[in-house]
Amino acid sequence: MGNKARYSEGEELENPLGAAHMGLIYVNPEGPNGKPDPIGSADDIRETFGRMAMNDEETVALVAGGHTFGKAHGAADPDKYVGPEPAGASIEEQGLGWKNTFGTGHGDNTITSGIEGAWTPNPIQWDHDYFDVLLNYEWELTQSPAGAHQWIPTVASAAKKAPQAGDTSKQQALMMTTADIALKMDSKYLVISNYFYENPAEFEATFAKAWFKLTHRDMGPSSLYLGAEAPKEELIWQDPIPALSHELVSESDITSLKEIILSSSLSVSELVSTAWASASTFRGSDKRGGANGGRILLAPQKGWEVNRPEQLAKVLNKLEAIQREFNAFQTGDKHLSMADIIVLAGCAGVEKAAKSGGNEVTVPFIPGRTDASIEQTDVDSFAALEPLTDGFRNYFKPKHKSSAEEMLIDRSQLLTLTAPEMTVLIGGMRVLDTNFDGSRHGVFTDKVGTLSNDFFVNLLDFGMIWNASSDKQEIFEGRDRKTGSVKYTGTRVDLIFGSNSELRALAEVYASEDAQSMFVYDFVSAWSKVMNLDRFDLM
Asked: Which of 218, 279, 225, 216 is nearest to 528 (CA)?
């Protein structure tokens, strides 16, 4: 997928995509959509690296440091000499694919990106030549032997050359990609490039930290690092939380707190919705997000549309009052964090909802979360965790090329959920009335707030006929087959559990007449999993 297909109307890179150009490293090196436009390339670079939480200094350092080494390969026309990809290649190529028939097919005859040449005169040595070459030479647009847009020094620049990779007795001209020229043409990047050129030690330090960040930001908090070389420094992009330093609440405290929470004016829907909003930001891809740290109390999370800020503020104020009163009466260093009471309140809500349906359950709760401060929160970086879709709360912003049900699968895999876990959570969240906007879409029950399997029973009821309410096919009406009257409304996320064969099979299990208890216990299990996804201390 190239540049155009990844941008929505208004020329904004579609969320949650990171790279501006699929199949290439971050951006198209020739420029946006293959056009050699350095200013447009700078925009793509800033957007793509920004989505990796890199600022301009880190971005320039990474580009320059990465291009200090090595070369790009575009010895000839790939359409003429490069064969099909591994999946399309013949069996004797043994899954390698992209067979190159130009010359030897390797070394100086290699064809990969189509760009050809090295950035610096010493491409196998760490030095500071990149900025010297970029800033002190004049560059003119040309094409590589493969036909790709790239830039070479003008004749007047009297530029140095680089040794050929396959035969160091020969030389070849230096080159820059359009993405490199962007660091010279963009006014902000140029200031940084000049600073690093004049202060090489600062460049090296910035590159080292940015490289560590780039290669480690999917590993979660520093507590997961292993080995003697793991740095002791705590970095804000690791989403640090305070170390546990207080005595934890006891089982009797937990029982008492549940009673206090349930005797407050907060509803099951409010308790469950708030706990879900806190915990469901977790991403298994990079181990960010989750309930630990209590960042739902902080910007930007407290203001996210999906979290219903007004309702959220009401719930948090009530829980904070309960927490303060509890902590005030404790002796020693026993303490209850807000991160803990938010999850505890959600567990209490689930227990109450199950009891309303005739099922006495104890939802597991393990204390030990702590509360992060705003100083420990990179607000800009944390904003990337904002759900632009959350099928569990029937939240979907229409700026997506993917459907709501496809985005539900994406959200579920980030939460490391299995198909049965996703299914049971959807069914439970609907009857507990957790839709982000308070709508009744998917609330297929007349016992709202009771944890029951009604969602599945009524979705699969053959007495219902479903039709789209508009040509957009986003909202659907479930009408009584005999009377024609509308009984329920649902979204694509709701109806996919009757439409998709695999999900329907799971829905039929939970819709069974004898499945109520199994549904409740499975929901509790999946709920507990989500609430503890970021409890790395329990591993």
From this structure: 279
Give residue-wise pLDDT tens across range 358-398. Answer: 999 999 999 999 999 999 999 999 988 999 899 999 999 87
Distance in angstroms (rounded) separating the CA atoms of residues 152 and 131? 15
Q: How far lies 20's CA from each of 4, 7, 29, 48, 386, in Å?
A: 9, 8, 11, 6, 20
| 399 touches 324 (CB < 8 A) | no
Lowest mean pLDDT among 8-22, 50-64, 177-191: 8-22
Identity of the amino acid at 106? H
Q: Is 113 exposed, middle or buried (0-12, 13-18, 19+ CB in 10 A)?
A: buried
Looking up tokens 């992009």 gives 237
Q: In angstroms, rounded to a whole number, what is the distance separating the alpha carbons of residues 292 and 492?
A: 32
Residue range 92-100: average pLDDT? 95
Name residue 74's amino acid: G
For residue 182, is pLDDT > 70? yes
Phi, psi angles (nearest 5°) of residue 479: -105, 145
Residue 343 zone, left/alpha/beta (φ > 0; ψ -120 to 50; rest):
alpha
Q: In Å, how far are 11, 21, 114 from 85, measured between CA atoms?
A: 30, 18, 16
Residue of 294, 284, 289 lying closest to 344 (CA atoms): 294
The pLDDT score that the predictor gives to residue 10 is 54
Q: What's at 43, amino acid-wise?
A: D
Dihedral-angle region of residue 97 (phi above 0 means left; psi in -120 to 50 means alpha; beta otherwise): left
**Residue among 533, 500, 303, 498 at smallest CA distance from 417:** 533
Amino acid, single-letter form, for residue 140: E
Query: What confidence score (pLDDT) does residue 126 get?
Result: 96
Strands 464-468 and 161-163, how do they pair? unpaired
Burial 277-297 (b: 16+ CB within 10 A, else e): bbbbbbbeebbbbbbbbbbbb
pTM of model > 0.90: yes
Average pLDDT over residues 338-348: 98
Q: With a cut of 70, say whether residue 5 has pLDDT above it.
A: no
CA distance 434 to 437: 8
